[in-house]
Amino acid sequence: MRSLERYVHALMANAGDVMAVVSRDGRFADVGAASLRVLGVLPESLRGTLVLDCVHPDDRGEAARRLACHGSGVPTGAAEPFICRVRHWEGGWRHMEATARSLLNDPDVQGIVINARDVTDRVEAERRLRASEALYQTLARSAPVGIFQTDREGGLVFANPRFAAIAGLTPDALSGHGWRAALHPDDRPRLDADWTRAMAEGQPVLLNLRFCGADGGVTFALCQGSPLSDADGRVQGCVGTLTDMTEYVRTADALLMAEARTNAIVNAAADAIVTMDGEGIVHSFNPAAEAMFGVPAADMLWNRIDRLIPGIGPLLQDGGLAVYQPGGQARGAGAVREAMAVRGNGGAAFPIELSVSAVETGGRRIFTGIIRDITGRKRIESDLIAAKEAAESADRAKSAFLQIMSHELRTPLNAVIGFAQVIEMRLLGAVEVDRYTDYAGSIRQSGEHLLAIIDDILDLTTIEAGGLSLSEGIVDPSALVGEALNLVAIQAGKRGVPIRIEMEDGLPPLSGDALRLRQVLVNLLSNAVKFSRSGESAMIRARRGAAGGLELSVIDTGIGMTAEDIPKALTPFVQVDQSMSRRYEGTGLGLSISKRLVEAHGGALRIDSTPGRGTTVTVDLPPDRIVTGL
C-alpha cells in the first residue's frame, strides 16, 4: 500500500492540473505542486485550510453541496465537472473546472481526491463569445438594414426582422428559399444568374431587387453580399445586407422628373437663361442663349460669361447680391438692368436686358441670369422717338408754313386787291389809261405768283400721295438747259445776277420727262439767283458723270448754308430762315420738290454749301437714262 501512496504523491507533484486531497471535514490534506503555478500559492500554505475559503462566495453553496455529497463516505465514482472561481494569490479569481472522487474509505488515501484544471481563458473566451453574440443579435434586430446569411444555393440561414419587413414576409416565411416568393417575377432570372456566377467565382453580390407586397406596392432594395468560405477556400454561402431604396428611388425619380420639367421649360424659353457662379463661370447655357449669342453651349460651359457680357461683374454684385441672403433660400429676381453684349467671340455689340437671381447651395452662390435681346425694342423706341420728333418738327413746320403762306399769299393778294380797287374806282381819273394798264400788269404778275405757289403745293401733294407719273420722252440736255435759262432770265436780270453756261461737248440725249426736269433746273436756278448778291454770277454746268450718267450742276457764290441747314432746306415747307423778318421770300418747296422729281428719274440730288461762299446743287441722273444709237 505504501507503493500506492508514493504513486499518488508522485502524480500530484507532476500533474499539470491542481490536484488535492480533501479530508472529511473539508480541509486540504495534501496539495499538488501545480498550485504554485496555477494559483500562486505554495502547497504547504494550503494544507490544513478550508477548501471553501478559497472558493468565490457566489460559488460556495454549490461547492459545499458537492463536498457533502462526496463526504457521505460512500464511493460515488467520477462526478460531473464543476466550474467555480478560486482565489489567486494576487487577489483575483481563476475559473477552475473540478472533478472529485471520494476515497474516504480507502485506508491509503482517506480523503476526497480533487482534480482542478484552470479554464479561465476558455471561460473568458466563451463569455466574450456570448457577449459578441448578444451584441450581434442586438445589432441585427435594431439595424436599419436587412442582415442575412445564406447557404451556397441562396437559401436563408439567418435573417433579421428588418429583412422580413423589407421583403414584406413574416420571419417564418423567409427561411430557405421562401424569401424569393416575394421577389418581382422579372427580377428572379437575373437574381439566379448573378447569384450562381458570384458563388462560382467567389465574388461579391450586388443586385437591385424589387419586392412585391400583398397590397400591390413595390419595394425597391439593394442587395449586397460577400461570400463565406471554409478553411479550404470553398464558398459555403453568403452574408450581406438588404437596404430599402424605395424612398431613394422615388426621390431620384421625382428629381429626374423635376429636372426634366425644368430643362423643358428652360430649353423652350424664348429668353436666354444662364446659370453661373460668383466668379462668372457658366454652368448652364440654354438653346435660346446659343441662338442669341451665336455660341454653342459646349463652348461656354466652364468658361467666363464676361466673354459675351463684358460688364456683368458689377451687375452680379448689384443685381444678384441685392437679393442674396447667406444661408437662405432662392430669392426673387433682382432689378432688371440694361447692358451691352457681343455676339460670338468679339462679334457685333447689341443691347440686352438682364435680370439676376441668387441661391446658396453647398456653401456656394449660384446666380441665374435671364437675358433678353432688346435690339428690336430699342429700334422701335428709337423709331418712336424719331417719329415723335418728326411729328413735332412737322407740327412746327406746319405752323411756320402757315405763317409763311399767310405772308406769301397776303403780299400778292394785297397788290391784286389794291390795284383792282384803283382801276375799279378810277382813282387816277379817266385819262390815265397807261397807269391803269401798268396796274393790270401788276395784277397779272401777282396772280401768276399765287398760281406758282399753288402749283408747288399741288405738285408736292401729288408726289407724296404717290400719284406722280412721268411723261417719258427723248430730252436734249442743251435744249433743257436753254429752256430753263429762258424762264429765269427776267428774274436774273432784275436781280443783276448773270448766269454762265458750261456745257460738255457731245452730250447724248436722255430718256425722261422734259417738263419735270426743266422744273428741277428752274427751281435750282431761281434759288441761285435769289440767294446771290447783285453783281455776283451763277453758273449751270452739264457733263457726263463719273458713273456714265448725266451730271447737271447749278453753282452760285451767294450766302451759302451750314451742314446742319441742308436737311432743313430739303424738308417741305421749311426754310433755313423761318422768321417773319427773313430777307428771302418763298414757300420752301422748291428743293424738296426738285429732290423728289430727280429721285423719280432714278437719280440723286446733292447739295454742297459753305456759309458765305455759295452753294452747289448737283443732279445725278443714272447711266440707264442715257439714250444711245440715235
TrEMBL record:
Origin: domain of life: Bacteria
Enzyme Commission code: 2.7.13.3
Ranges of residues in domain PAC: 205-257
Occurrences of domain PAS (ranges): 4-67, 132-202, 258-301
Broad class of enzyme this protein falls into: transferase
SUPFAM superfamilies in the cross-refs: ATPase domain of HSP90 chaperone/DNA topoisomerase II/histidine kinase (SSF55874), Homodimeric domain of signal transducing histidine kinase (SSF47384), PYP-like sensor domain (PAS domain) (SSF55785)
Every Histidine kinase domain range: 404-625
Family annotation (InterPro entries): HATPase_C_sf (IPR036890), HATPase_dom (IPR003594), His_kinase_dom (IPR005467), HisK_dim/P_dom (IPR003661), HisK_dim/P_sf (IPR036097), PAC (IPR001610), PAS (IPR000014), PAS-assoc_C (IPR000700)
Gene3D superfamilies to which the protein is assigned, alphabetical: 1.10.287.130, Histidine kinase-like ATPase, C-terminal domain, PAS domain
Catalyzed chemical reaction(s): ATP + protein L-histidine = ADP + protein N-phospho-L-histidine
Matching PROSITE patterns: HIS_KIN (PS50109), PAC (PS50113), PAS (PS50112)
Keyword Calcium carried by entry: no
PANTHER family registered for this protein in UniProt: OSMOSENSING HISTIDINE PROTEIN KINASE SLN1, TWO-COMPONENT HISTIDINE PROTEIN KINASE
Protein name: histidine kinase
